[in-house]
Amino acid sequence: MKRIYLILGLVALVFAGAGSGDKFPDFTLENIDGDDVSLEQMLGEKPVVITFWATWCKPCVKELKAFKPIYEEMKDDFHFIAINEDGPRSRGKVKPFAKKEGFEYTILYDNNGEVKMKAGVSDIPHFFLLDKSGNIVYKHPGYKTGDEKESVEAIKDLLKTSSCSDTELAPEEADE
Question: Is the pTM of this model over 0.85?
Answer without folding.
Answer: no
